[in-house]
Design goal:
The chain has 306 residues and is of the alpha/beta class. It has helices at 2-16, 19-22, 35-46, 64-75, 87-96, 129-139, 152-168, 184-191, 209-221, 231-236, 246-262, 284-289, 296-299, and strands spanning 25-30, 53-59, 81-85, 102-105, 120-123, 145-150, 172-177, 197-199, 226-228, 240-243, 272-273, 279-282, 304-305. The chain has two domains: 20-125 and 247-273, Rossmann fold, CATH 3.40.50; 129-243 and 279-305, Response regulator (Rossmann fold), CATH 3.40.50.2300. It is elongated.
Length: 306
């Protein structure tokens, strides 16, 4: 009898607990089978609290219609928080999940797609301008004119923001439009007399499998340092780069999910948050080729070296 009373008391206690402490269910929407998405999700899972459980996990495989169906299932479930990884997953969540907090990540230029909605919070892929400039300023403090190649149909917004940020720092962006990959050599020749470094953007017209080798070799020949936006670009020949690790984005999303599980109406909802960890890398061979001295105190300022 005493055992029955004890059990009844325990159950009554559970019923009286806040629902946020009883159920911490998380659903995941993944846009496609892309390694960056997988890395972010693995980082997310590894940093969740023990009380949080992933109860639903769907992969759109690039199919928006499928994504909307998955999102409807999530909305009908007991999920307390949703992680949407990639643009299609974020858009499917925006269209179908209206009353559950949604965290989205790995979406370029989210404002272009009307993100975030009022129940969403995003993790930006944009790195603050000063963080992008920091590794270049370490090596070339006098660099003032930054060249940019861009396709106006793809990265006009990025160039406009870059120009505003550079102007605020007393720097100049010298931008040249290219509509096709074939225009790159002529555009580079026009830029080269007027720039101290070339700034690469994630523009699929400018950066292709063929053009990347040309860009790196041509700039080296002209003694023009290149600023990259990924470890891969620095490894391929860019002098320096500031960039994000997808696992770190997953960690940040997990911390955010923990916050939302405690308070679904957190002030961060409806905003896009900046990354909390930025990596800096240097290509030592490129620096040597460009005649840049690399004493130990300089190298220690880079957390990745190639």
């Amino acid at each position: 009898m005493r055992l029955v009373i004890t059990l009844l008391g325990f159950v009554t206690g559970l019923i009286s607990l806040p629902s946020s402490l009883l159920a911490e269910e998380i659903a995941i929407l993944q846009s496609a089978d892309i390694s960056a998405y997988t890395e972010a999700i693995e980082g997310f899972k590894s940093h969740l609290p023990a009380s949080a459980h992933i109860t639903l996990e769907y992969n759109l495989q690039g199919d928006m219609a499928k994504g909307r169906n998955f999102a409807k299932r999530i909305r009908a479930s007991d999920a307390n928080v949703v992680l949407a990884v990639g643009l299609k997953a974020a858009l499917a969540a925006k269209l179908e999940i209206l009353d559950i907090p949604v965290i989205f990540c790995l979406v370029l230029d989210p404002e272009k797609y009307g993100l975030p909605a009022k129940n969403m919070v995003g993790l930006s892929l944009d790195i603050p301008f000063q963080d992008h400039m920091r590794p270049l300023k370490i090596l070339l403090p006098t660099a003032k004119r930054l060249g940019v190649l861009f396709d106006p149909q793809k990265t006009r917004g990025m160039v406009d923001r870059l120009t505003r940020d550079a102007t605020a720092q007393g720097l100049t962006i010298v931008a040249k439009e290219v509509i096709t990959e074939q225009e790159i050599p002529k555009a580079l020749q026009a830029l080269s007399p007027n720039i101290d470094a070339l700034w690469l953007l994630p523009d699929s017209t400018v950066l292709t499998e063929n053009s990347l080798d040309f860009l790196m070799s041509w700039t080296l020949q002209q003694n023009i340092p290149v600023v990259g936006f990924s470890g891969g670009l620095v490894k391929s020949g860019a002098l320096v780069g500031a960039y994000l690790h997808y696992t770190d984005i997953g960690h940040q999303a997990a911390t955010l999910a923990t916050t939302l599980l405690k308070n679904a109406q957190s002030p961060v909802v409806g905003t896009v948050l900046m990354p909390n960890q930025v990596h800096q890398s240097i290509n030592e061979k490129t620096a040597t080729f460009l005649g840049i001295t690399l004493p130990p105190h300089i190298l220690r300022q880079f957390d990745e070296r190639f």
